Amino acid sequence: LKASAFTPVDPLMIPTGELRPVAGTPFDFTSPHTIGERIGESYDQLILGRGYDHNFVLDNREAVDVEVYEPVTGRVLEVITDQPGMQLYTGNFLDGTNIGHGGTAFIHRSGFCLESGHFPDSPNHPDFPTTVLNPGETFKSQTIYRFSVR
Fold first, then answer.
1. CA angle 4-5-10, nearest 5°?
2. Within 18-96, where are the H helices?
């Protein structure tokens, strides 16, 4: 996840307006490691979200923004976007009550989501990228989810 900062949240999970560096925190995915490796650490933002449910500030706008590798099957997911942020959510509130294909229950942290977009609550934080769309303007965006095998 090519992001050197993330947007911390308050107890209601609303961004505070801070852009916090990921270096030295469990939010540092700039080098490869498993999503669950540090999810249980006693870090204020992990405690508030019961895991990851945070927007990351993407750095390099000219390349792959996120790469996920699953070593058992060799599956690779690459995400490329023109959006400034990437929300990582780790199924922190799944409790087994939702049932998927084949009768599989979605249990706590049984999956993750990568959602490109602007920073949550952007209109209320002047230092966040603007989300204002004026009359006559058109909004266009592209996010590519590319799958392969290594």
1. 160
2. 44-49
3-class SS at 36?
A: helix
Q: Answer yes or no: are the C-beta atoms of 95 and 50 closer than 8 Å.
A: no
The DSSP bridge partners found for residue 79 are 66, 145
Read off the amino acid at residue 95: D
Give the pLDDT confidence of 17-55 residue by residue, as tens digits: 999 999 999 999 999 999 999 999 999 999 999 999 999
Q: Is 101 exposed, middle or buried (0-12, 13-18, 19+ CB in 10 A)?
A: exposed
pTM of the model: 0.93
97-109 tens-digit pLDDT: 999 999 999 999 9
If one counts every other C-beta atom within 10 angstroms of the C-beta of residue 8, the result is: 19
Contact between 110 and 94 under an 8 Å Cβ cutoff? The reply is yes
Q: What is the pLDDT of residue 61?
A: 73
Domains and CATH numbers, the chain: 3-149 (2.70.98.10)
- Give the model confidence (pLDDT) of 69-97 as tens digits: 999 999 999 999 999 999 999 999 999 99
Query: What is the DSSP secondary structure assignment for residue 119, as one 8-state letter?
Result: P
Per DSSP, the three-state class of 55 is: strand
